[in-house]
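User: Predict the structure for this protein chain, please.
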Amino acid sequence: MSRVSKNPVTIPSNVEVSTTNSNISIKGPLGTLHQKLTNVVVLEVVDNEIRIKSVNESKHANAMSGTVRSLVANMVHGVTIGFEKKLQLVGVGYRAQAGQNKINLALGFSHPIDYIIPDGIKIETPTQTEILIKGMSKQVVGQTAAEIRAYRKPEPYKGKGVRYSDEKIVLKETKKK
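Assistant: Here is the predicted structure, written as structure tokens:
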């Protein structure tokens, strides 16, 4: 069994867990998340804990038990607290403005970019150069942040572009005569 899956996932008092053979559903104060499970992993809900067991001792079952444990732990965290990513726009004239169901980005192109916000995601712009992405699903929040960042990745000479708030850009030295 995986070292990760040996640790049980604790269930807070305001979270409900329901499992079937191939699905798990976790309901909390922020909403409900569903995850499909493989047939090599079995979940047991005992005394406010979720224990993950692999059906057999194969390498695949061992790997999947750790993966499922991480997914379930992220689901519990997501329905109770939620996840957030913060992006920064660096560059002259780079700005963002969040609307009802889309975010308008000015990233130095000849046209503005309208990004449609996926379901379950809230995007805020505290300032014109900051984007705050919030949601229940860690995967969807990370994917949304990656798609927005992909419009204009930070370039290595001046550092202009869309970057994560904790990202360090290593700047290259310019060409010398």
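Residues 96 and 105 are 5 Å apart (CA to CA).
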